[in-house]
Amino acid sequence: MEKFYSSSMLPIHEIQPRLAKAIKHAKRILLSAPTGSGKSTQIPQMLLDMGALGTQGRVVVLQPRRLATRMLAERVAQERGGNLGDEVGYQIRFESHIGADTRIQFETEGILLRRMLSEPTLPGVAAIVFDEFHERHVYGDVTLAQALELQRTSRPDLLVVVMSATLDTRLLEPYLAPCELIRSEGRMHPVEVAYLSRPLHGDPEPPWEAAAAAYENAVRNGRAEGDTLIFMPGAYEIQRTIEALRHTPAAKGALLLPLHGELPPQEQDAAVSPQTGRKIVVATNVAETSLTIEGIRLVIDSGLARVARFDPWRGINTLLVEHISKASADQRAGRAGRTAPGYALRLWTEAEQAGRAEQDVPEIKRVDPAEILLTLKALGIEDVEAFPWLEPPEPKAMERALGLLHDLGALDAAGRPSPLGLRMLCFPLHPRYSRMLLAAAERGAVRPIALIAAIAQGRPLFVRNAGKQTVEQRRDILGDTGGSDLFLLMRAWHYARNNRFDVGRCRRLGIHAAAARQVGPLWERFLRIAESQRLPVETAAPEDEDIAKCILAGFSDQVARRLDKGTLRCELVHGRRGELARDSIADEADLLVANEIHEIGRGDGELQVLLTQATAIQEAWLRDLYPDDFADQTSVQWDSAARRVTARRETTFRGLVLTAKPLESPPAEEAARLLAKAVLHGECTLKEWGHAVEQWMARVNLLAEAWPEWALPTYDEAARELLLQQICHGSASYKDIKTKPVLHTVKSLLSPAQQALVDQHAPERVELANERKVNIHYAQAAQPFISARIQELFGVDRLPTLAAGRIPLTLHILAPSHRPVQITRDLPGFWRDHYPRIKQELQRKYPKHEWR
Ligand code: ADP
Ligand code: MG
Questions:
Q1: Overall pTM > 0.85
Q2: Which of 277, 307, 312, 283 is nearest to 295 (CA)?
Q3: In ligand 1, which atom is closest to the CA atom of 6?
Q4: Which atom of ligand 1 is nearest to the CA of 131?
Q5: Is 294 in the pocket of ligand 1 (CB under 6 A)?
Q6: Strands (E), 341-455
Q7: What is the DSSP string of 165-196?
Q8: pLDDT tens-digit map of 113-122
Q9: Is 29 helix (H, G, I), strand (E, B) or coil?
Q10: DSSP alpha helices (H): ranges in 221-321?
């Protein structure tokens, strides 16, 4: 069997017996072995040769990167002595080398999931190998979940192998259970790691100079014995590093080889294959674990990587250069210890290292999940929250993404993908861009829209805070018509290109020449995707209006209306607010769409929401494109200044009020409700709602409590509000209700019979034993009382009661001056115990009064 494999034995061959045993009973295998062990090249072959694929089945090996996909396929084909597309093949977007007899099929991650759209049970696929799973790309995560689901349902025979270069399997083991775990420690030589003694300066200091200097240092210290691998975040930095090394004497005579996805295949192959003489490979993180380059003894690590991340300002995913995690840096260092002890130089300090993250955050937690959610929906998964995620997206991100898909028209009202949404899925792009390109195809605007997408994707084209003069010059030369900031950006880019990205000429207009230079390849990429979907690319130049409509199609969730002409304040759809950027070209527009929304924290702790990259639009376009998202509504509000209820008939687009007409008379119910609220909150007082009304209510409440059997209604908050609404009915302003009579309405809560009960048992006045009549004072949540001067009480030896004795009355006894003398419920006790003393005192003071 050995004759099939590469001539030298690889560490992975040690696990071959275990693998052979495992596939006899297990359908899920988790295999972890260090980089270079032979996982990617050998495991698929072993599966085939062990008969794990049956007589005709295929193994699909999923790869996170196109470059590695092609190289691994070529390598394996070569090891097996065949041609690509025969027994071994590969498929990446735009490129397929797969034949009818292909048994080992390398693919990039997204391709298999998309194939499931048309072939849900994956006929012919006997095994799926998830390679480099530790990278945790969204498509890898989701495809694995789907594969496990397939095993549970229609494909129990499907073999799933998950391979990872890290030995940390804590998350995966329970997720895959029941699964067979196979580990191989591999063979690694020690790698000595060194840090910078002081951090790189600048914002940030370009890493290429530092890398060249580090190389020079290593040579001087005898540390650059074998070949060297330098990690840089992207193609641009790789190019600059190679230029810097060209001017480094220590690198003289060394072969300088770039390695990244954008290079032609021959150049990629040259970097990986053995060379005579010393070589320095400058690579992206494709060389971190995906590809093994033999003979590396020195690693120089910039510590940076381009990482896909959702940019909330731009509302899209972008690639940002970020610091790698400790785990990732360890992987990179490990590349120096493959064949002999090695040396790794990190272009950051030990202190900086301590502050770095332990692990990379999985992509699903970083990016906008809109595209993957749409894919899941298209696969028939309606409840995406219940999907068996290895780790789900953040709930907020999920909600936002679903909202966006609705607004883009990719999902219908029931949350199912629309025909348009399914069409959008054919583009390997964020749904905003696929939507824009599809709109552009209808309007002959594919070229400019692809350019706008490319400009948005890259670094900002315009220098920040360029200065008034520069901005004016920019507008003078480029023009400032068209009503869109994006048109100005397009003109600026053409200007930069026509001037061959000349730094001086660009700077005069505040254009970043380097950023502009990077737009070209991105534009090409968008155009190529458009072509692959047969969109008309070569068309006559479209009207500005057509371009604006395409922009709207991709950002219709960010439509805004100016609140007034005097300020830049705007209201956005879905109830948000913001402010248009002062220098926007769209500042004349009443309606606009903003491609970027910046949330800027201000000194006072408030958040300023700034709308930039705006394009003027018209209501008619919205009506045309989104007829179902319009609604007519009557809005009624309390105008506290005028103390009246006003009403408007509003036309809204996704909650944003577009037009409003005042209504003569507001709807009665609503007006009464708002007026009543104003009264309740004390903004208006009803003249007639006075003591008598409060007394009545207190009487009823008192009696209701004392005599629950009668089940009298009570005046609580809700009843008051209801009565006020009744009083206010038919009125719209304070003026109308100010002097309205209220007592009759208040009393009407009770039936006439109930009212009679109240008059009988909790009367307004009561007769004392000496036939005098006195008022009873009622109050909410207090005992009722009567008050009388001593002279009025002569001949009274006991107090009357209410409610047939159920409610006692309290007596406030007053002096002739009406000053209170005593509060009591025990009148006989007063006469007996207190009166003689009080009488003495008062008689002296008020001799003219009668004293008995
Ligand atoms: P793993 O996936 O475990 O990192 P691979 O299967 O990719 O390991 O590689 C195993 C070994 O095969 C590498 O160490 C290297 O020696 C060799 N190899 C793999 N691909 C190539 C290639 N394209 N050219 C030369 N050697 C290769
Ligand atoms: Mg591998």
A1: no
A2: 277
A3: 12
A4: 2
A5: yes
A6: 342-349
A7: SSS--TTHHHHH-S-EEEE-------EEEEEE
A8: 989 999 999 9
A9: strand
A10: 235-246, 265-272
